[in-house]
Amino acid sequence: MNDLMLDQPILQLKGLEKRFDLDQGFLETVKLRKGKFVREQRSVHAVNNVTLDVARGEALCVVGESGCGKSTVARLVAGLLHPSAGEIHYDGERIDDRSRKSMLPLRKKMQMIFQNPYASLNPRMTIQQALEEPVRHHNPLLSRGEVREKVADVMQSVGVDPLWSGRYPHEFSGGQRQRIAIARALTVDPEFIIADEPISALDVSIQAQVLNLMLDAKEQRGLTYLFITHDLSVVEHFGTKVAVLYLGAVCELAETTTLFANPKHPYTKALLSAVPQLNDDKPNHIRLKGEIPTPINMPSGCPFHTRCPSANNRCMTEKPRPLRQPDGSTVACHAVEENRA
Amino acid sequence: MSLLSVRDLTVKFAMRDDTVTALNQISFDLAKGERLGIVGESGAGKSITGFSLMNLISKPGFIDNGQILFDGEDVAQMSDKALRDMRGNRMAMIFQDPMVTLNPVLTIGQQMVETLRAHRKLSKAEAAQIAIVKLREVYIPSPEERMDQYPHELSGGMRQRIIIAMALLLDPQLIIADEPTTALDVTIQADIMELLLELCQSNKVGLILITHDLGVVSQMTERTLVMYAGRIIEAGKTREIINDPQHPYTQGLINALPQQTLPGQKLKQIPGTMPSLTAIPRGCPFSPRCQYAVENCRNTLPEVVQYAGIEVACHEVKRLHNDRLEQSA
């Protein structure tokens, strides 16, 4: 590997956008307005102009509240959805316009873990079958014995006894099922893992087990993570870099330590202040006015201006551009730019 | 006198051949206007505790033994009429998912007026007036308009506010909130919790907050019960339990939180999982996962003892506490 490859981010998102059209087909788009028929397409603007890089070995966490588009970003990267605009580059090659067939070699490098392991494991397949399938699919030349060995190895590494491989998903607890889902992602020796809320459905003591497992896998296999979560304490622990999403747009992107020590965007500040702390008698939580607007009628200007305590006229009309800060973080906020946040 | 006094409450569920014990001899008290947190992981029995306080355990479950004295009356022995009279009136419950509590085919106003008129002799117009006042108390913008809206027209946070307003409609003495904000986003959660705290304090309403989130318990409650496999294993002042937990399970729960470890370091995990109620281990139910367990722990069930101002069910509590003191010295 030469230096150029090392420097290159493993994943690059360039101006990524995703709209979901609400009106399907021509007839639904025709509407009566003031006595005239007009064509109008309403859409959900799930992801709006997201640009970010993920370096090799990094764990980039995407955080935000429900409906902010974080899962859509994960699905776009995994190729489960196609972007409406923008580009996705993996290892320097554009991947968003590829056909199913030419995506295939990439799927071996890039695996996904979902939130609910009960939904992502086929209830009628034993664990052995579920884990063997991806290995066979991606390595058709392996012998039966080699496949079995591979599966047993991976099961061992995630702390599930290979003796249980004949059991079905319902025979395992939630935490074990999530380990198995992780094992399935690891069986094909990927280099990049997209994890969409992998521990949100688990109990506290089990969350720690699964998070440790993912940290181990990162160290031992040199994995890169795109980690989607709403839980900021997990981000602080797991992430090397954080992207805060609001209404489909990145409002702040920073190294984890920088973000937690010195949040800049008003939304990031509010989000951090809302996390219930163990040893804090007087929470100084920043109350935001109103609620998240729907991504169907996006606010003009800055998407956050309707709830922002430091919004002014400029925020209502002009979209803020992501600007690099002296400490290396990138913030999209007029108030930060004008030093009035 | 305490508002609520639970003694040796045991709740069982009938299975095909035998019964499983979901709650095993739990006892606790709640003073008037006190806020109590019940924490534990799924399957610990926290929700069953909440349900049984309202006598809402339905078949195949049943209250096998014990007393639930609410304001001097035993809820476990109440007639159906007395229960109907109490529920929603003197004791109200808030659930995790507001869409399950709200009737989707009735407007907010209809549901609130119905609740009020079920317990009080009021005209529809009078009831509507009270409902609007309560909606305003939970900071619902333009409450008059909300009265004519259906639940699906409102956001999740707004719905949970309405549930809180409904719980407070008849000025109950006790609110049981079962994971009231688990389905909500952090910023909304913080708002709702702040509101709940404010209303309980200003109206002197008792609160039982059932949650898995130790951070929420720490900010909301004065006392805490920690449950494991259908038993209370630790109980005491919230601050003391958070700062110096005595039971190894509580210690494990707190230490497993990502905030307790330096970023990037391995988290201090508790090995294994909570036992299923059909196979609760002999002796201390936590012993198979406990790093400090000795022979005695695997054989005899620990009794609840007072230690360092905390009630704790652990054989080794004294030794472990002394060890910790030595280590820190």
Q: How do the strands line up in the largest sheet of chain B?
A: 6-7-8-3-9-10-12-11
Q: What general form of chain B does the structure show? A: globular
Low-confidence blocks of residues of chain B: none
Give the proportion of residues in helices of chain B: 25-40%
CATH superfamily of the largest domain in chain A: P-loop containing nucleotide triphosphate hydrolases
Whole-Å distance between the termini of chain B? 41 Å
Domain module count of chain A: 2
- Tell me, rounded to a whole number, the average pLDDT of chain A: 89
Q: Note poorly predicted spans of chain A.
A: none
Which percent range describes the beta-strand content of chain B? 15-25%
Cα-atom radius of gyration of chain A? 22 Å
Number of helices of chain B: 13
Structural class of chain B, please? alpha/beta
Oligomer: heterodimer
Biggest sheet of chain B, open or closed, and with what strands and sense?
A: 8 strands, mixed
Say how many strands of chain A there are: 14
| Helix and strand sequence of chain A | HEHEEEEHEEHEHHHHEHEHEEHHHEEH
How is the biggest beta sheet of chain A arranged? 8 strands, mixed
- Broad structural category of chain A: alpha/beta
